[in-house]
Specification:
By secondary structure, this protein is α/β, with parallel strands linked by helices. It has eleven helices and six strands.
Amino acid sequence: MTQMGPTELVVLLDVDNTLLDNDRILAALENDLADVLGAEHSERFWAIYEQVRAEFDFVNFPATIERFARECSDAACVGKVSAALYDFRFSEFLYPESLAAVQRVASFATPVILSDGDQLFQRHKIRASGLEDAVSGNVLVYVHKEQEVGDIRRRFPASHYAIVDDKPRIHAAMKAAMGEQLTGVMVCQGKYAHDPAHHDFPDADITIEGIAGLLALTAEELGPR
């Protein structure tokens, strides 16, 4: 990723449950780990995963693996976990039309992956899925991306921004931080998008039922309202 000069429109694309079906990925990973570790070790791994997520306030697979390694009496366990995670077939879990949607955005704007997570596994997932290449290496990963608006603007200066995300709280926080300089596109995919508490998505300017809906949007629609 290289720092850009000013551009007219930057489109910030979320990953989990926006471009990648993360709900299905986690279900598949649970099955894979149960197969290679057995039920007892697998259940313990996911219990540690939840503990680490609560402590760090974000998904942190490297920290989960490290803590699991200290607890697991079988020395081979750690290698099995690492192989299952880092050799996972992420590209198979892209939503239909995800790459086409990114290509469509790239035809009139600068697409940038904007994701939450740890700097190791999350970046690996983005690379292994093909998304890093799709955005020409323009990838930003933060613990809490909604708190990093200043850094986003510094790295990708633009007249206007659009964000494509499935989480209502992200739309609310980014809209509060960027105001009229941001167009919000709510993607109704995944568990967050279908939370009954957020059924009307008041902080999004545009709502689409899936990422394929991005193919129909224009620069004018994603630009200043």
